[in-house]
Amino acid sequence: GQAIDRYRHARPASERIFNDATLVLPGGNTRSVLFFAPFPPAMVRGEGCWLWDADGHRYLDALGEFTAGLYGHSEPAIRAAIAEALEDGLSLSSHTAREGALAREVQRRFPAMELLRFTNSGTEANLMALASACAHTGRRKVLVFKGGYHGGVLAFAGGGSPVNVPHEWIVARYNDLADVLQRVAPHRGELAAILVEPMLGSGGCIPGEVDFLHGLRMLADECGALLVFDEVMTSRLSFGGRQALLGIRPDMTTLGKYFGGGLSFGAFGGGADVMQRYDPRHSGALQHAGTFNNNVLTMAAGLAGLTQVLTAEALDALNARGEALRARLNALLAERGVAMQFTGLGSLMQMQSLAGPLRSADDLAAGDDRARALVFFELLARGVFMARRGFMALSLPFDEAACDRFAQALEEVVSAQQA
Ligand code: PLP
């Protein structure tokens, strides 16, 4: 209560912007995930790993645009590439050299994507991957996991959503092969795809266990279904994503977020046998159009990011910083006897309001969201920004000093609550 009152009183401009927007936008914006009561801060500027709101507060940005902000705000090489592309015009009604160059850079990182195509979002990439799997197999059923998130119309928190696309879903427990086998058994010959995040992202940064993910690979082979890895979030965990770390070759992979250099992006791809179907030189080719699939600015920004900024070393160092920060935060919480923890892998993490092992979305049900809300608002008051649900994605400029600052802020919050 008090923390929220202080939050509100310190942000009259954000409140006004929110109230004005609600007259035409239900909930004040068009991304459900951004809303929290009483209203989210309206950000006006970003630089490096810092954000400023309309009320003049500065925040350490630990959210990193839900992983799309990997490069940080206003990365100079990306800005320059956008400015250069802008000089030559935006909408060229044509393919361009940058499109092929960006695709080659993606393919070099994800060799299982023998052929790929671009979309405007991770959601679309997943929709296209499922459409591809259904077309390729001539089947309709899709295995997904409770707590999985693959886009606004492909969301399985609580088991599903009324606005989901009407596929024939089979929803199983994450990290539970016995549950998977039991649910799939009556439908083995009808399974088109297994769509899985190698780590539940939105569903709580719960890593897929190695045996579980290998088990899905085997199941897909046995059933003749396509294994689709949604690496929209986990692609940043190594140069070749989590599939490289696990040594698993999925039939299809979907990407999004930072690959567009901070602009709208998605990609789906996989084995040539599946993806050749989109080649219009073949008779009966599948259609996949989209005015902005190859938009000039995304192609330029994505290419600059991958070729000029995101070396394998920079990525590994960032993930190591994330590992170290998570260990430090968890040590602090354990030492103080606070029933919270940070889960995740590398630079991706989630503040959980319960201690103990977490293996699937169901395990989160016992968490106390009031405890998490309190920490969230107290961190905001100390100039630290994360998602209201506790999600964090570190950016390249989020350096050791930023990690120190974050850890200090959390320590202050814990100390104040225990005083
Ligand atoms: N897949 C995963 C794992 C995601 O985390 C997200 C977005 O958060 C998406 C897909 C959807 O991507 P987009 O928001 O670009 O549509």
From TrEMBL:
What name is this protein filed under? Aminotransferase class III-fold pyridoxal phosphate-dependent enzyme
InterPro entries in the record: Aminotrans_3, PyrdxlP-dep_Trfase, PyrdxlP-dep_Trfase_major, PyrdxlP-dep_Trfase_small
Lineage, opening ranks: Bacteria, Pseudomonadati, Pseudomonadota, Betaproteobacteria, Burkholderiales
The coenzyme or cofactor needed here is:
pyridoxal 5'-phosphate
User: Where does this protein come from, organism-wise?
Assistant: Ottowia beijingensis
Domain of life of the organism encoding this protein: Bacteria
Q: Name one Pfam family in it.
A: Aminotran_3
Q: Which UniProt keywords apply?
A: Aminotransferase, Pyridoxal phosphate, Transferase
In alphabetical order, the GO MF annotations are: pyridoxal phosphate binding; transaminase activity
Question: SUPFAM superfamilies this protein is in?
Answer: PLP-dependent transferases
Tell me where the signal peptide lies.
none
Family membership noted in the UniProt record: Belongs to the class-III pyridoxal-phosphate-dependent aminotransferase family.
